[in-house]
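Progress against Task 2.4 (sequence-to-structure conversion) is shown through the following example record, which the project officer requested during the mid-term review.
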Amino acid sequence: MQRTVRGLVRWQADGTADPGLDPELAAEALGSMVDQICYVWMNLGREFDEDALLDVLTTVWSRTVGVAQARPRPVAAPTCAPPTRRPPAAPRPCRRR
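Structure tokens generated for the chain above:
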């Protein structure tokens, strides 16, 4: 949780996240949300479309902390190779799902 708190504080300082949000309470609430959905999915066997679930969690999480540009990605969005530690010299190849 402390990593999330530090991230929220950093985002608040740079103007990305809502400065009025209590970082510790937000981290607890968001962590609990993710923990619960993972419990339902992995332990209780509830089936979810993984991509749809991750999009919803990302959107809810981002909007909760006040990230203004939080938008769900389009269903047919291209997926790219995972980022490397250093930006590549040329654009990474992408593929359509």
